[in-house]
Amino acid sequence: MTHTTTRIIREEHGALSAMLRSIVLLLAQHRRQETLPDFGVLRAMLFYVDEFPEKRHHRKESELLFPKLRARTPLSRELLDRLDEDHALGERRIRNVEHALLGFEMMGEARREAFEKALGQYVDFYLSHMAMEEREILPLAERVLTQEDWADLDEAFGANRDPLTGFEPDEEYRQLFTRIVNVVPAPLGLGAAS
Q1: Distances (CA, A) of 131 to 74, 114, 125, 162
Q2: Would you tell me which of 2, 16, 85, 144 could form a disulfide with 72, CB atoms 3.0–4.6 Å apart?
């Protein structure tokens, strides 16, 4: 049986993966066309990565799921420590990507490669991080957590959902998500193909 929390984590990972891959695809397309990207769209997409995964998704894992796992089993403590460290470093890493984007926007072509490299490193880091959670941590959680643990987790994870997984955004984020969905090209958004 797969619990609600496990499903939510996988859905949120899927939304983040799609967002990150879409940024990479947009940049590759603009590079091929020898055009500059829409920096406003890129800023909105990176702001999403900063706001939801870094500040909400990770906190649910580090403050709710991981402590329950540590309390139930000595297995994977080293891995949980590493994932917590990734979460702690994530905000700094996304800031570096956002700074590199600003450099590209302000300085032009001279900074394109530095931005693409910073983004590529962040995407590789993040995809690897999520794969580790899904491959190692979620199956362990399914094996060792109690029904009471799951009830607590399901309530907490269900109360704070990522709008890119099909849930209505909080009022304060509605404009951001509307913008992203309307201007980002399919398949992530509804915008016209470039």
Answers
A1: 21, 26, 10, 19
A2: 144
